[in-house]
TrEMBL record:
Region (Disordered) residue spans: 29-49
One annotated Gene Ontology cellular component of this protein: cytosol
Gene3D superfamilies per UniProt: RutC-like (3.30.1330.40)
Family to which this protein belongs: Belongs to the RutC family.
InterPro entries: RidA (IPR006056), RutC-like_sf (IPR035959), YjgF/YER057c/UK114 (IPR006175)
Protein name stated in the entry: Reactive intermediate/imine deaminase
Molecular function via GO: deaminase activity
Lineage start: Archaea, Methanobacteriati, Methanobacteriota, Stenosarchaea group, Halobacteria
Length: 127
């Protein structure tokens, strides 16, 4: 097991790693759409989704892979009415074949945001 961190994403808000590599898979903890340079997040859920996926990809790059290696994602929304807007941003950021995915509505997230995403991605050659 190996911890992955990136200075290009906001720090973890609690006692957890940004990501862990185990058995050739990168397990990325839940990320949000906070811009690491400004500490702010976009207002629209679509823009938050795009920023969230960019933050996820930065962690994957620190591990030695990228968004094309994502095999599974979990999307947490504070309002399922945002599902279509999230899908539009998700579709424009990721390519086919899309990862397996679960999307659930939650009452709130640790930060006052609308979306959080966690992923699992493959590493070439395994680890």
């Amino acid at each position: 097991m190996r911890e992955i961190t990136s200075d290009d994403v906001p720090d973890a808000l609690g006692p957890y790693s940004q990501a862990i590599v185990s058995d050739g898979t990168v397990h990325v903890s839940g990320k949000t759409g906070v811009d690491p340079e400004t500490g702010e997040a976009p207002e629209s859920v679509g823009e938050q989704t795009t920023r969230t996926l960019a933050n996820v990809e930065r962690i994957l790059e620190a591990a030695g892979t990228d968004a094309d290696a994502i095999v599974r994602a979990t999307v947490y929304l504070t309002d399922m009415d945002d599902y279509d807007e999230v899908n539009e941003a998700y579709r424009s950021y990721l390519s086919e074949p899309y990862p397996a995915r679960t999307c659930v509505e939650v009452s709130r997230l640790p930060a006052p945001l609308d979306v959080e995403i966690t992923v699992d991605a493959e590493l070439d050659g395994g680890e």
